[in-house]
Specification:
Order of helices and strands: HEEEEEEEEEEEEEEEEEE
Strand content: over 45%
Helix content: under 10%
Structural class: mainly beta
Number of helices: 1
Number of domains: 2
Oligomer: single chain
Number of strands: 18
CATH architecture of the largest domain: Sandwich
Low-confidence stretches: none
Shape: rod-shaped
Mean pLDDT: 92
Radius of gyration: 34 Å
CATH class of the largest domain: Mainly Beta
């Protein structure tokens, strides 16, 4: 072997060693481990307590090796379920279905997410979690609510003031209400209308007395919660109304044009019970 050939061989050996060192140091051609949660898709975003939501989660193996890993679904910080993906081939994806039974869930807004466990030697973990939008879980009205004047019978002497309440009972997810109250203006004047304590249990409200008409004898009042929140369920007082008795006589304190609306902007079925006023000497 001549000198020139020896130099070439030596040079090739040195280059081979250098290339092997660079490949090893920089990780070229080494195995890549990378799992990603691609999407989280619930079957519905507005549901009632007791509904079952199917949550479809798509995960992808972005690496170069088959991978086995766990996928966990959540609503807010609460774990729904964990499923195992076994030997997912490199470069492929698969879908998983998680079932969320909302029977025991408190009505509110919830975030849904899925999280894939970190596999050995995985460095890019930012895409191991995917957060979906808000799912609104609400109480459902199954029987008619009752809107009524309390007390049902009022006896007051002429010249005095008295108050009544307009109350709600057995309501689910009340977000907005409106009513008109009528009376005989010969006997009564409306002095004031104030918001009751029921609706603002759920958050900030916007209360309005649109009209007090003592000539025709009616008041138009409404109130709504503010923001993307659940309505209020149960029993309570919507408004408190003060009257002045002008003269002796009898009349009905009648509710009409009543509207009860849920946070899903759906009308709430309800019945109405009027009050009766009797001015005594």
């Amino acid at each position: 072997m001549n000198k020139k050939t020896l130099v070439v061989v030596a040079l090739l050996v040195v280059l081979s060693i250098a290339l092997a060192y660079i490949i090893r140091k920089e990780g070229y051609f080494s195995a890549i481990h990378d799992i990603a949660v691609v999407s989280v898709m619930p079957s519905g975003t507005e549901v009632y307590v007791g509904d079952v939501i199917n949550i479809t989660v798509i995960v992808k193996n972005k690496g170069t090796q088959n991978e086995t890993f766990n996928v966990t679904s959540f609503y807010d910080a609460t774990v729904l379920e964990t499923q195992t993906v076994t030997d997912l081939p490199a470069g492929t994806q698969t879908s998983l279905t998680f079932n969320w039974n909302t029977t025991d869930v408190t009505p509110a807004n919830y975030w849904v997410k899925a999280e894939a466990s970190v596999v050995p030697d995985e460095t890019d973990t930012l895409d191991n979690t995917c957060l979906d939008g808000i799912i609104r879980v609400r109480a459902q009205q199954t029987e008619p609510a009752t809107l009524q004047v309390d007390p049902r019978l009022i006896k007051v002497k002429a010249g005095r003031n008295f108050t009544i309440s307009v109350s709600i009972s057995d309501v689910a997810d009340l977000y907005r209400w409106e009513f008109k109250l009528r009376w005989n203006p010969t006997f009564l004047d409306c002095v004031d209308v104030d918001e009751g304590a029921f609706l603002n249990q759920g958050g900030n409200t916007f209360f309005r007395t649109l009209t007090i008409n003592n000539t025709e004898g009616y008041a138009l009042v409404n109130c709504t919660l503010k923001g993307d929140i659940s309505g209020v369920s149960g029993d309570g007082t919507l408004a408190v109304i003060e009257f002045h008795v002008k003269d002796t006589g009898k009349c009905i304190l009648g509710l009409c044009d009543t509207k009860l609306v849920s946070s899903f902007k759906q009308p709430i079925i309800h019945t109405v019970k009027d009050g009766n006023f009797n001015a005594v000497p």
